[in-house]
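Problem: given the chain below (332 residues), write out its structure.
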Amino acid sequence: MKENNKCTIGVNIMKILMIGRGVISTQYGWALEQAGNDVTFYVRAGRINQYGDIVNLKILDGRENKKGNSVNKAWKIKMIEELSSNHDFELIMISVNHNQLSNIINWLEPLVNNSTVLMFNNIIDEPLNSIGSIPKEQVVWGFPGAGGSFINQNTLDGGVMKNIFMGFIDDTTNKNRYDIVTRLFKNAGFGISEKKDMRNWLWFHFITNASLMAAASKVGSLNNLFDSASDLKDFALILRELIPLMRAKGSKVSTITSIAVNLPAGLVAFAMKLALAKGNLPREIMRSASGSENLKAESNVIFVRDTLAEARRLGISITRLESLNSPIYREG
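Solution.
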């Protein structure tokens, strides 16, 4: 399918479809609707009745305040359970658990039309393979600066930071579409942290998450991890061990990244402890994202398990992750 150089996305007000009513899509959907956009959520059959149309937001909004302004309100949302083949959504945003991505893409491929697709997702595979037959020229690559959890079916405990992350993968994206999406977020009060190599950034972010989850699994919770310099040192050592995995995947690990991960682990731990001190917005977001602090939660397990599986596929030894004895990390 050839790219239509004339993009249909409006500059100021856009018709946006969020895939799923998850933590990320809900918080950004709220912010984008606040800015005047028309936001709808696609949910699975039966979920409209199950969820109801009210989300109780209990979040920290970091767009104007580094500590985050408290938002506590009931927000009425629009949801659909079917997507028409002749829909007129200008932007479709995907932010789901990475292990759910292939099913979403398979469903969406024949329904994209001329929409721009914003990939707002964790990815460990080759990103261009992860979009299936969706024209790569219609895909814009980004990543949220947000997190949280639903503490019950309709109450979201979370937060958003000032910046989102965006960038190109092999210059495949139509620049006009990319610029319009960046303006969309800027108009909603967000900053853009642009990455020169988005593929490399996505992979590094994935192994960083896996390292955090692995280190936290040893001490019972993310909060315990963030309060302990010695346990954060373990995180730094796990992350260092995963850099060869990125190289084996063809990543050009930057000099800055190489220097950072090879600093003394104690120094890295000290810097992390400062950045994740109680009261800081990143710490609050991570706290809320951990929900009940149960690190056996499926999404956390899958981060570690899929990193292990990728390392085994490429013949990379990662002793510290392999030492996790729980069978849930050995499956798959």
